[in-house]
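General statements about sequence and structure are easier to judge against a single worked case. For one protein, we set the task of working out the structure tokens from the amino acid sequence alone. This step matters because it turns folding into a mapping between discrete strings. The amino acid sequence and the backbone structure tokens for this protein are reproduced below.
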Amino acid sequence: MWDEAVTGYGFGRDHPMDPVRLALTRSLVTALGLDRDVNVVAAKAAGESTLRLVHREDYIDAVRAASADPGSADQSYGLGTVDDPAFAGMHEVSALIAGQSVGAAEAVWRGEALHAVNFAGGLHHAMPGAASGFCVYNDAALAIARLLELGAERVAYIDVDVHHGDGVQAAFWEDPRVLTISLHEHPRTLFPQTGWPEETGASSAEGSAVNVALPAGTGDAGWLRAFHAVVPELIADFRPQVLVTQHGADTHFEDPLAHLAVSLDAQRAVQVACHDLAHEHADGRWVALGGGGYAVVEVVPRSWSHLVAIAAGRPVEPTTLVPDEWRHQVYARTRQPAPHRMTDGRWPVPWAAWDEGYDPADRLDQAILATRRAVFPLRGLLP
């Protein structure tokens, strides 16, 4: 899913969410020749009725007003703040990004595509009635809501952004048809200070929200261990008809806004795992989204190009050289040197499986066990 206009989603020159990350990802996809293996589609912007599947009418009105006159933004809706400054055209470009994710979900549900990627999406912090964390409209939640509207009975959402997927969790807190799983840095040390293991869903949907709160400093082996200790068993039990995944690249050790120490190679390994889970449990139906990521040259374009390649059925080997033409383009646009290879030199990434035993004194294993104890019994599984 791509429309050049999504690069208009920009909060200003000094804001960390620089839309150049989207343009550079798109150009790297082209430089790697992946355009030959995908259908590039531009969906229409999400309309009022679609936005209201998740967002309140008064909030949409507030976004429209701030979009037309940024100086009048109502901060009670999270608009015009340091994190979410208002800008001209904000409603239009936010609705366009949401439309790409909704269009991706529709294509997958209707069988027009097996996999669909919107790396401009994954804006998972937006709440039904407020902007939050660089996110205006919650395209991930809107895609899931549209799937439910089309008749899906079970949708699983996996969020591996470094920040808790709080907006998506909130949207489906009371809905047992949606299983939300978020792996993120512990809320003690990172925004939005939610995503504790004890957050498991409303009484009407107990066990439908899953949170793995990882200690700051968690690296590749721990991150992959946590993912595989929690996610596959829950997905197998839930049997989703569609898998929606969010791949924020801000878990990376070079990301300036968080404190995990994950490599590009581990991110690629989780992307492969999500692809495989879709085929094992959802008949291959997979909607993959972007998310956070503020190392906009070194990390984001490579990570999301790997995601596109995996979805296209033509994964890029980690040892692949980054095309020279793309590296020259990066320097011309940003005056920053571009990476030379599609790897951080850590492939293949080793990790230890949970069923091989755990250390009760290890902080990572404590985090995994806290999640399993909080959620697994609610789903009839052994912790």
